[in-house]
Amino acid sequence: MILRARHLTKRFGSVVALSDVSFDLRAGEIHALCGENGAGKSTLIKLLSGVHPYGTYAGHIEIDAGEARFRSVRDAAAAGIAVIYQELAFVDELTVAENICLGTEPARWGFWLDRNQAQRRAAEVLARFGIALDPATPMRSLGVAQKQLVEIVKALARDSRILILDEPTAALAEHEVERLLAMLEELRGRGIACIYISHRLDEVFRIADRITVLRDGATVCTLAPAATDASAVVRHMVGREIGELYPRKARLRGPALLEVEDLAVADERGRQRLGGISFALHAGEVLGVGGLMGAGRTELLMHLYGAWGRRTAGRVTLSGRPVPGEPASVLRSGIALVTEDRRRFGLHVEESIAFNLSLSSLGAVSRGGLLRPGAEQKRNADCARSLRLKADKLSAPAGRLSGGNQQKVVLGKALLTGPRVVLLDEPTRGIDIGAKLEIYRLIDGLRADGCAVLLATSELPELIGLSDRILMMRDGAIGGRFEDGAAIRPEDLLRAAIGAAPRPGRL
Amino acid sequence: MRRRQFPPQSDLLVLLLVLGALVALFGLGTDGFLGKATLGSIANRIPALMLVSTGMTLLMVTGGIDLSVGSVLGLCGAAAGVLMVDDAWGLGPALAASIALGALVGSINGWISVKLRLPSFIVTLGMLEIARGLAFLATHSQTKYIGAAIESVGAPIAGWVVSPAFLIALGIVVLGQLLLSRTVFGRHLVAVGGNVEAAAISGVAVDPPRIWAHALLGGLTGLAAVFNCSRLGSADPNAGVGFELSVIAAVVVGGTSLRGGRGSVLKSLLGVLIVATLEAGLVQMGASEPVKRVVTGCVIVAAVLADTWRRRT
After folding, report:
1. What is d(CA A342, CA A338) in angstroms, rounded to the nearest whole number?
2. Which of A81, A276, A437, B103 has the lowest CB atom count within 10 Å?
3. Share of chain A above pLDDT 70, in %
């Protein structure tokens, strides 16, 4: 047993974030930690990695059977614990080698940076773990997945024995996920222990030796993957029966609303990014848009909304009329967008929930440019209720909500404009299962109300489960069309996305 | 990201407490500070600062800034002076011309910085030089003596303590606050300043609010220029040198963020009052000009520091 946590309890004021949690980790084990947001996963990690120092919690942490009393993150790092966070900690301006050596730079006479040795040391570590990456590469030129590998290598270069990965695959494409999981298996073979946190249960089942489920700050159970299945884990996580994950679908398809004919779009540098895209989106249907990362899903949605790219060919019409070219007018014409990048495009994080909900539809709660506070408050309260928003008061900053509730606010803002067409880009990214189910319910509600929904998502089960029809994108074009939701197999979708036989393993 | 929760009005309360403390301090420390004469003279010295701080708050909420307000104050005053003295215009038309000129200069600032995507800091730094130069050209570097025609605006109303200028400025502060907190336009100012990309995706036309904020500030500066002339009964092309710094100081003391997205016109008014009270009080206590400046500078930095701390933890 390399790490043992006993009866950990952590309070923030009157809130109990962790209550009597025990957890252990063996050398050479991948131990998955599952739970909804707010279940206590992050708090547990923060105790184990010294973010919350010894003395601010009750209980004990033992490393190699000796009690560990971390006063800081440095103490934990010295004991061999490294955390790879969702938001990666890099200096983009530096090279791979410099990032790997960051904080432990080899120096002559204590201050003169020895670049050659840094280069050599980085190359040696990269080679040891079989990563084909030039240490002199500038960090900025790497993709998210490669940056993540560098981050892991950085930890390993410091002889870390316990890796903690917090949602490492949230921003990765399918084939990159594959590479990461392969690397973790390799590390497991070398005796490195890993705590793996992910909302994606297929990954968890693929890689974990044991699964511990947390709920409301307490451990629910620890399971062996062979002896359980995903729906049981979900049940433990949410603590209630969830029945059907995806709402049952009846055919509701009405007339075509949004029609796209032979669309081609170039980016700001004139590079052709989308081409030959044609489809019709009908009232009362969910049309799924799948594809690997970079296939052009987000670009397509952003372009339809008038927020990205220059059209070089084709037509986009809503009920026969051309769709305008900038967001304010597109929104007025009845098309709303829920963006993929919540914190950048979706929310004013420092402003109140109410401010965010109202922003796109101020016209409906004002007269002659003057706001009517009463009408606005009432409407926002109704909206929050129908979204089942979990917030004390709507005057609290939106940035303080959990990911799932933030997403509901973004969705609510779009819905308050009364759209006929809703473009959803990764509506469930990074949110917990409970919130996911509610977003699914809302999507199904839109469909039932006769809205046309264009749903872009990188999660195949979601794509299949929610869509009536599916378009798979590949390199900015449509790689495959799937007309009947029920008979679609994941392998076929992947083949359309990749343009070849899918890799084995995932899905 | 996690911030301690403060009641929404606590900022306002803190500013009021600081102002109260200053008044009490000077009231106890000097003779006659609390008298009608001193308080009245403070009130009649600040209308220009109140007006421009109101406009500056609205602009800074959008994430913009205008460094040219001091020069524009000089330019508009000079124009009003030339019109009234050389061309024998009445106060009303000259006032309108001054406001229009200010709004024009503001619109130019706004249009260049927004449409051509240049930082307003740089654009208005250029305008600071241009407007000052024009002020000298318009007056041939001479101070224009206007006299009684304009002095009535800034002098106390008969039987009252305060001037028409102060009352007008107070009314505009109230209107400015209502514009910010109770109108769609105000919401858009905050949305654009807080996160311009999210505002655009939310269907806010992001350019007009920013250009209008510049124009509005320019117009208010034009009005302030006339108030400023009325205090001395003359138009000095040198008027308003360093004025932009007093304005920004007052707005920042009032808690408006330099990065945009957060601000309040009423709190800026309190910022104006705090800075003005401090200066008047120090004068009453016999502090020299250099000492006054050192103390005022310290208070500005302390105010911003306190504000940042309160938000951080």
Report:
1. 8
2. A276
3. 93
Contact B3 A400 (CB under 8 A): yes
pLDDT tier, A502 (very low <50, low <70, confident <90, very high otherwise): very low
The pLDDT value given to residue B312:
60
Q: Which residue of A has its CA nearest to B195?
A: A348
Give the pLDDT score at A242: 46
Concatenated DSSP letters of B131-160: HHHHHHHHHTT--EE-THHHHHHHSPPTTS
Burial level of B91, CB count in 10 A (0-12/13-18/19+)?
A: middle
- Mutation pick from B10, B187, B202 vs chain A, by most beta carbons of A within 10 Å, is B202
Q: Which residue of B has its CA nearest to A336?
A: B202
Contact present, A188 and A30 (Cβ < 8 Å): yes
pLDDT tens digits, one per residue of A19-44? 999 999 999 999 999 887 668 888 89
SS3 content of chain B, % helix, strand, coil (to 5): 75, 0, 25
In a domain, B6, yes or no: no
Q: Find the closest chain B residue to A372 by CA distance.
A: B182
Q: Say whether residue A279 is in contact with chain B using an 8 A CB cutoff.
A: no
Q: How far apart are CA A25 and CA B92, in angstroms?
A: 82
Contact criterion met (CB < 8 Å) for A359 and B183:
no
Where b means 16+ CB within 10 Å and e means fewer, A21-30 reads: bebbbeebbb
For residue B203, the chain A residues in CB contact (below 8 A) are 327-328, 330-332, 359-360, 417
- Read off the pLDDT of residues B164-203 as tens digits, 9 standing for 90 and up: 999 999 999 999 999 999 999 999 999 999 999 999 999 9
Contact, A286 vs A489, CB < 8 A?
no
Interatomic CA distance for residues B57 and B254, integer angstroms: 9
**Contact check, Cβ <8 Å, B201/A305:** yes
Model pLDDT, residue A121 = 84
Cβ contacts from A onto B, under 8 A: 81
Please tell me if residue B175 touches chain A, with a CB cutoff of 8 Å: no
pTM above 0.90, yes or no: no
Per-residue pLDDT tens for A348-359? 999 999 999 999
Enclosing domain of residue B181:
34-312
What local confidence, expressed as pLDDT, does residue A443 receive?
A: 93
Q: What's the structural domain count of chain B?
A: 1
Residue B5 belongs to some domain of the structure? no
Question: Is there a domain that residue B145 lies in?
Answer: yes
CA–CA distances in Å: residue B273 to residues A265, B26, B239, B254, B276:
55, 14, 21, 10, 5
Residues 86-125 of B with CB under 8 A from A: none
Q: Does A307 touch chain B (CB under 8 A)?
A: yes
Domain membership flag for residue B28 = no
Minimum distance, in Å, between the CA of residue A371 and any CA atom of chain B: 5
Asked if residues A152 and A183 have their Cβ atoms less than 8 Å apart, the reply is yes
Shortest alpha-carbon distance between residue A400 and chain B (Å): 7
A355 contact B CB<8A: yes
Q: Which chain B residues are within 8 Å of A369, Cβ to Cβ? A: 183-185
Q: Look up the CATH number of the domain holding residue B145.
A: 1.10.3470
Mean pLDDT, chain A, rounded, equals 86
Name the residue type at position B254.
Answer: G
Residues 203-232, chain B, touching A (beta carbon < 8 A): 203-205
